[in-house]
Amino acid sequence: MIFRRPFAAQQSTGAVRSAFEAIAETQRSAAATDWYVTQPDHARISGELAAAFDPRKVPNVGEAIVRAISLHDIGWMPYEGDVSSPQPPKELAPGVLLSFANAEPELFLRAWMASIQAAQSTGPLGGLLVSAHFARLTHPYLNRGAGTHEQRAQVEQFLHREASRVDRLLPQAGLPVPEVEALIAVLQFCDLASLYLCANPAAPVELPQLLNGSHVQLSFENGSFRMRPNLLDYVLVLEIPCVRFIEGKPQREMLPVKVQ
């Protein structure tokens, strides 16, 4: 889950921050009655962002790639549902809600494996991209020595399996390695940009991926999300599907936003 507070997009203020740090900070203060976006719905927004890229600036993002990006978190469906059939927030510890930012390997590895299988149904390149994306997400976890010895061993086993998958799929991908690497960056950019839209941090942010030779900054100004430099082919109008549980019952709201 990606928790958001407040519901409405808020005018960006302050210095530009690291995108992941600003987003993760919003999750640490989440309450059980806050609005949230499920990870399958967040992934669909990632796909909408990918589909809107200007192909002169971000090439090779065809329909199959957009579909794979849209499915990259579908493996969370059994644990979170989506806006049509959401599950309520769960506690990781007393007073600490489970979110995308603090899930443990026993959960996120199962969700990732299912997501990779779904993405691979779009073709070898889709499976390769989502596999490589999740493999890279393990690096901060391992580098900071998070989890128990057993949990780190599970993550290492996942990395070993997925390295074998990438080796198997790469010859079938139909693109040279540099172009595959560029598409992995596209997926990671769309994932992080969607998290920004969903989590609603107050600060403007910069994303670490290099697209079209630049690092992109995102902010919310005067009623629209702004992308600088703008990599989109058109003004993207989308809806963020938000859910919250009040007295055990789900409430749903679709929040329309513009990205330009």
Give me the side-by-side strand order of the main sheet.
2-6-7-8
Report the principal-axis shape: globular
Mean pLDDT: 97
Cα radius of gyration in angstroms: 18 Å
What is the terminal separation in angstroms? 25 Å
Contiguous uncertain segments of 5+ residues: none
> What structural category do the secondary elements indicate?
alpha+beta
Helix content: 40-55%
Number of strands: 10
Largest sheet at a glance? 4 strands, mixed
Explained architecture:
This protein is of the alpha+beta class. The protein has one domain. Helix content is 44%, strand content 21%.
In short, what is this structure?
The protein is of the alpha+beta class. 44% of the residues lie in helices and 21% in strands. The protein has one domain.
Summary tags:
globular, alpha+beta, 260 residues, two-stranded antiparallel sheet, 21% strand, 8 helices
Question: How does the SSE layout of this entry go?
Answer:
Layout: E1 2-4, E2 17-18, H1 19-28, E3 35-37, H2 39-51, H3 63-70, H4 77-80, E4 91-93, E5 96-97, H5 105-120, H6 124-143, H7 149-169, H8 177-199, E6 205-211, E7 214-221, E8 224-228, E9 236-246, E10 249-259
Parallel strand pairs: 2-6
Antiparallel strand pairs: 1-3, 4-5, 6-7, 7-8, 9-10
Helix pairs in contact: 1-8, 2-3, 2-8, 3-6, 5-6, 6-7, 6-8
